[in-house]
Amino acid sequence: MSIVFAVPPAESAVVWWLLLSALLVLLLGAALRPPARDAFSVVVRGGRVVRVTGGWVVRVPGLEEVVEWPGGQVVLGVVVRGDTADGVEVRAAVEAVVTVPPPQPRARYADPVRSAERAAERALTEALRGRPVTGLLEPDDGLEAALLRGGLGSAGQLHSVEVLELEVLLSPGADQLGRTRAAHGPR
User: Fold this and answer.
1) Which helix (H) or strand (E) is 36 found in, with range?
2) Which sign does the torsion angle of CA 117, 119, 123, 128 carry?
3) Closest CA to 158 of 93, 112, 97, 95
4) Across the strands, what pairs with 158?
5) Cα–Cα 20 to 30 A to 99, which of 3, 22, 23, 46?
6) What's the rounded Cα separation, in Å, for the pair 125 and 174?
7) CB-based burial, 55-86: b 16+ in 10 Å, e otherwise
């Protein structure tokens, strides 16, 4: 025995209207995104930036992704290990305040904070290589001044740098600071 439910035509239209309304609300909820506070919304499709906006974002669900891009200053903690100009191995930890420029449409998308961190790591490594260990904390030509002068290129604008920690890593057989590898050569 089977039971068949018959819906009168007037009620059928109301049921269809409610189902379509619910579907429309779900689609709008998936396609619209509110603006992020202190950030840009970047729409990415296929790994490329489609558009950048500071307001409400409409996206095509399944084809486009909305990511946040920092709109203000970002604080980066960077730690590198490297050699100074006189061959001393050091580990430096710095805190850098940067502003990341917004992406251009059609450009390949890359995480802006990670890109700025990599650029800061490269700049810090180069700053270490260009100075003797005794000059790393000099106010006019130390690490902080060198990083501020050199900047981060297209990865961001550097506003301030503070050296948080600087460790000199002495290897066995080092007789004097600054001549650690005179006899052994660089690693």
Assistant:
1) none
2) positive
3) 97
4) 98
5) 46
6) 22
7) eebebeeeebbbbebbbeebebebebebbbeb
Q: Which CATH fold would you assign to the domain 73-169?
A: Tetrahydropterin Synthase; Chain A (3.30.479)
Question: Where do the domains of the chain lie?
Answer: 9-70, 73-169
> Quick check: 118 and 78 in contact, CB under 8 A?
no
End-to-end CA distance of the chain: 86
Distance CA 9, CA 42 (A): 47
The answer, yes or no, to whether residue 43 has pLDDT greater than 80, is yes
Q: Kindly write down the DSSP assignment for every residue of 111-162, as one continuous string.
A: -HHHHHHHHHHHHHHHHHHTS-GGGTT-TTTSHHHHHHHH--GGG-EEEEEE
Q: Could you give the CA distance from residue 92 to residue 102 in angstroms, rounded to a whole number?
A: 29
How far apart, in whole angstroms, are the C-alpha atoms of residue 146 and residue 78? 15
Query: How far is residue 54's CA from residue 36's CA, in Å, rounded to a whole number?
Result: 8
